[in-house]
Design brief:
Elements: H1 2-17, H2 33-51, H3 56-62, E1 68-72, H4 78-83, E2 105-110, H5 115-132, E3 139-143, H6 149-156, E4 161-167, E5 178-184, E6 195-201, H7 208-225
Helix pairs in contact: 5-7
Length: 239
């Protein structure tokens, strides 16, 4: 009996520490009804996140005090975006970013594979960044964008660095996770090894405020060393 109580207590403590499926119990040879329904709900949330869209009016209103532009990728709809990742990496023909200031750090916000993550977390991260940066950064909102589209935008604005905030591929316990990809001297065709990534920005993961601090620390180190990606030891950062 004492062993059963100890195991139950351990499972309860584990469930308090993580949203992963641990200690979910059994009903015969299968899951409990509660665990089965929870799995179905999380699966539905993940699917919804992939097909959801950014709340552009809310984001545009929140970012209106900074230089702002809204563009789209070459993927003309969500279905094409999901099937053709390559089209999400480049701007649609005719997109114009000439109104934005040149030579700055540019913040790009893209829906990625979870607009839910952007709608929930992007405003907090961007606001934190703008408070910490030495000067305001222009912002580009991208519909149906992939990570590499930040390189096109960075080149078009002659940016010193680009901070790409993008919805991460949703998991069954985190459909609202935002990722940040930071690249020094962006230009089309850069390999992924030139980027530094901060992931799992969400409630229950890395807080938006702390993520903003880490991004700014990375930017400062990039400015000093003129490099980014695997050549930059992000583990050496100290808060």
């Amino acid at each position: 009996m004492s062993t059963d109580i100890t195991l139950q207590t351990l499972e309860e403590k584990l469930r308090e520490m993580t949203t992963a499926r641990v200690g979910i119990g059994r009903s015969g040879g299968g899951w409990t009804t509660k665990a089965t329904l929870s799995f179905a709900l999380d699966h539905a949330r993940a699917r919804e996140a992939v097909w959801s869209g950014m709340n552009l009016p809310a984001l545009q209103s929140a970012f209106a005090k900074w230089p702002l532009s809204t563009v789209s990728s070459a993927a003309h709809d969500r279905a094409t975006y999901v099937r053709r990742p390559d089209l999400g990496r480049v701007l649609a023909p005719g997109e114009d970013l000439s109104s934005l200031p040149k030579g700055k750090i540019v913040i790009v916000v893209a829906d990625g594979l979870s607009a839910t993550a952007v709608n929930k977390n992007a405003v907090s991260v961007v606001s934190g960044l703008q408070d910490l940066l030495s000067e305001p950064a222009p912002i580009v909102l991208v519909e149906r964008g992939r990570v590499a589209i930040g390189d096109d935008i960075g080149a078009a604005t002659e940016a010193r660095a680009v901070v790409m905030l993008i919805g991460e591929r949703p998991g069954l316990s985190s459909a609202d996770s935002l990722g940040a990809y930071i690249t020094w001297e962006p230009k089309p065709g850069l390999p992924d090894s030139r980027r530094n990534c901060i992931s799992n920005i969400r409630e229950g993961g890395l807080s938006p405020a702390y993520a903003a601090e880490r991004i700014v620390l990375l930017l400062k180190q990039m400015e000093q060393m003129r490099i980014s990606g695997v050549a930059l030891d992000s583990n050496a950062l100290t808060a």
